[in-house]
Design a protein that fits this description.
The strands form three sheets. The protein has a nine-stranded mixed β-sheet. It has a two-stranded antiparallel sheet with strand order 1-2. It has seven helices and 13 strands. The chain starts with a helix and ends in a 60-residue tail after the last strand. About 25% of the residues lie in helices and about 25% in strands. It is of the alpha/beta class.
Length: about 325
Amino acid sequence: MANRAVARDAVFALRREIARIEGALPQRLEVPAGAEGEGEAPRLPIGVGSLDRLLGGGLMRAALTEIHGRETRDAGAVAGFALALAGLLLGQAKEPGLVLWVGMSGVLHEAGLPHAVGAQALSGLAPERLLLAQAPKLADALWVAEEAIPLQKLAAMVVEVHGNPERLDLTATRRLHRRAQAAGRPVLLLRQAARPEATAAPVRLVVSPASSGMRSTLAGPLAGSIGLPAFTVSLDKSPAALPGLFTLEWNSDACRFTERANPQIGTADPVAVVSLSGRGTGAAQASGQVVAFRTQGASAAGAEPAASQHGAGRGPRRTG
């Protein structure tokens, strides 16, 4: 019996280790002892309650997080969102650190380099704390990232790639995720114009630009003004395995996100689709516009609509 119990514990431990390596159970991934700084929480709260709940309390600090852009033209929004996360991270850190931005040369030439002054205005990240590294090939970018993740001076790392290259597979993302776990710091994988695929990242966010609202004043919204930068964030993969769609505004002065009401979420459909039953109770009410059709052979007076109801040159389509 003892041997059987030991074998069972060994099998369970092996299964758990495989799950950790593959990222199959991100909600159970534990931060290695000593990886987190003293007094720091293992998660980075976004500050929006509904989103943080789906993330299990926020983004995991010691993990790989994917941030996708559906199209190349969304690269500015994706980069801006990553810088906002970096600002949020540095704002909660006891000591300011460095952010290393590793990108393939082709991607940086297409989407542009992060602007130092703009990055400081958006996230509060001083230009001397933003390090840029260009790599001609994906293999070089991944090598730079893996070698730099353990550096203690880094507060976060951003790796920017384009599309779905074969080399960026489950094995490559697993290596980045395990390095992030061992170092105890976040690694943001920006994927421009990429489609979702299997990776070891516990969280995948799809980011696109959202229209900014008007600037708020004591007298109310200022007409014709441009307010806070806004992002449409779709939660495509998370520990809760539940989707979510949010419109987030970033306040660089307060260094925090706020949620803006999204008309696409929670809008009840006023049109009843199917009634319960012709004989049952609680039948759905009449929905929308009623379209009448004359039964075959009917010739009663008034069956045809008035001539004024027809458009010029149209047949007797009944849309009464």
